[in-house]
Amino acid sequence: MEKIEEILKYLSITFGHNRILILGGEPFLHNDLLGVIKICKKLGYSVAISTNGISCDLINDDYFIHNVDMLSFSIDGYDKEHHQIFRCANVFPKLIDSVKQSVKNNLQTRFSCTVNYDNCDTAAKIIDLAADLGVKWVCFHYFSPIGKGKSINEKALTPKEWIDFCEDLKKHKRSDVLIEFAPTFCYKNDLDEYVNRGYQGCTARFLERVAVFPDGKIYLCSLFLDTEVNFFNFENNGISVNKNAKNELDIALHLPATCQNCDKATQCRGGCLAYSVLQEQFTKVIRSEDCTSSIIPLCPLWSTKI
Description:
Blueprint: H1 2-15, E1 19-22, H2 33-42, E2 46-51, H3 62-67, E3 70-74, H4 80-83, H5 92-104, E4 109-115, H6 125-133, E5 137-142, H7 159-169, E6 178-181, E7 185-187, H8 191-196, E8 211-212, E9 217-219, E10 232-235, E11 238-241, H9 248-252, H10 257-260, H11 265-268, H12 274-277, E12 295-297, E13 304-305
Parallel strand pairs: 1-2, 2-3, 3-4, 4-5, 5-6
Antiparallel strand pairs: 6-13, 7-12, 8-9, 9-10, 10-11
């Protein structure tokens, strides 16, 4: 716990960070999640927690209710049959019970869905489920074959399929549910729209989203998790730059020659440079150096709302 406070205090002072998303594994399995939350609030952080919704015992704790700023539930399908394609059997009812309790306790409640070949045809139905349960926010992500996903990289959608999915989401717009999605790719003619919505290129370049691991590794881009190119290490009461390899910021700042001669380069900002380094697992994406400007790769960590 002392190490957690030390790291969060350092990031607050040096980077000005004031928001934290607690991920896992499963955060509710931590032996002192409430203690972690108390440290975050002591240091002035807003706290969001991502969970599978199975073991949310703390959800009725008074301190938890009044100090957690958002509870995000991972969901893969709009009903039991579709959700358990990826999950263990019979966990969907537990998830829904936790969601209902979160809404009842007036916690800001979100659904987060990662979309791939197995659920892309029905994932949008989660929006209606959210409305029925009183969930006001649904976020859709492009499936990236990292972590355990490396073994099923064939499940990733092609850029065109993902663009079509995101376009279809607009048909499901409703006044009672905020729909968020990560464009990840776009047609050349649509790039202006995303720039006007705030797209500025690779988020790693701005050091705005750091991922801290228990071993002290700190990543700027979640696509590089489980690699040795992390930009920072937390050691000796501070941060040191990883000099043992070409780190992720070196990669993010590289600009392919094709970008330098492209009339859209100042808008796409080079797209996603991680795709070039991780091409063995990202077999279906469009890499920046192969971009023809018909479909343009964007930073997959940037999202927008409908």
